[in-house]
Amino acid sequence: MSIHTKASPGGQPESAAPRRILFVCLGNICRSPAAEIIFNAVLEAHGRRAAFEVDSCGMGAWHVGQKPDARMLAALQRHGYRWGGHRARQFRRADFADFDLIIPQDASNREDILALARSAEERARVQPMSRWFLPDCRFTEVPDPYWDGERGFDTVVELLEEACTRLAEDLLG
Ligand code: 4NP
């Protein structure tokens, strides 16, 4: 299945590259805000940031309203990225209509989102971040760094840099 194809109201497939992208993790303070920041930077480097709407959210509500975790902000800063002001929010059903591509960071996030989907079209919008990992990647999902040391946050940033680069190549053609 191509992410560039979706059914039109008339039933004929129409070609439309996804432009509204939502990254999802558990708390929306580590992985998905980092993915949002890094993907925006990749788009910026391609001169295409204005063509996309990029957001992130979490499946849980514990951290709603908070800035990203200080350890994640520090790791992002070590890699040359700056926080753009995002505050944590929880996934909502309206996100299925508001975004073309919903990208869970791990298998558990994916299961939780799919449990809320009400149609094949909604399910088709959900594509795991691992889809854009390099073929020889040692990870099968973006590991949760929350209970880890500093190095875990750097690993997540580096994994997301690879995946966001490949995602942008995929969407920009
Ligand atoms: P995230 O990391 O899902 O990448 O934002 C986590 C943040 C908070 C918690 C778990 C994971 N928590 O249990 O509060």
Strand-helix topology:
Elements: E1 5-7, E2 13-15, E3 20-25, H1 31-45, E4 53-58, H2 70-78, H3 95-98, E5 101-104, H4 107-114, H5 120-124, H6 150-172
Parallel strand pairs: 3-4, 3-5
Antiparallel strand pairs: 1-2
Helix pairs in contact: 1-6, 2-6
The structure holds 4-nitrophenyl phosphate.
Q: Please, could you describe this protein's structure?
A:
- This protein is α/β, with parallel strands linked by helices and 173 residues long.
- It has a single domain, classed as 3-Layer(aba) Sandwich (Rossmann fold).
- 37% of the residues lie in helices and 13% in strands.
- It has six helices and five strands; from the N terminus they run βββαβααβααα.
- It has helices at 31-45, 70-78, 95-98, 107-114, 120-124, 150-172; strands spanning 5-7, 13-15, 20-25, 53-58, 101-104.
- The strands form two sheets. A three-stranded parallel β-sheet has the order 4-3-5. Strands 1-2 form a two-stranded antiparallel sheet.
- Strand 3 (20-25), helix 1 and strand 4 form a beta-alpha-beta unit.
- Helix 1 (31-45) packs across helix 6 (150-172) and helix 2 packs across helix 6 (150-172).
- The radius of gyration is 15 Å and the shape is globular.
- The two termini are 16 Å apart.
- Mean pLDDT is 93; it is low at 5-14.
- The protein binds 4-nitrophenyl phosphate.
- 4-nitrophenyl phosphate binds next to loops.
